[in-house]
């Protein structure tokens, strides 16, 4: 079965591909970098910040 790499769009074989769903280690690392940089976001309303409660001594 052939699938398209989500990063570069190249068609590659799924079976015996050590980097699937990517075509190469380079694309796998680019995807990891995108996650680390915060480039992927889920659409929706912004979350409100969590307010920390002060503890009484």
Automatic annotation (TrEMBL):
InterPro entries: DNA_gyrase_inhibitor_YacG (IPR005584), Znf_NHR/GATA (IPR013088). Keywords: Metal-binding, Zinc. The keyword GTP-binding does not apply. It comes from the Bacteria. One of its GO terms (biological process) is regulation of DNA-templated transcription. Pfam families: YacG. The keyword Transferase does not apply. GO terms for molecular function: zinc ion binding. This is Uncharacterized protein. The lineage of its organism: Bacteria, Pseudomonadati, Thermodesulfobacteriota, Desulfuromonadia, Desulfuromonadales.
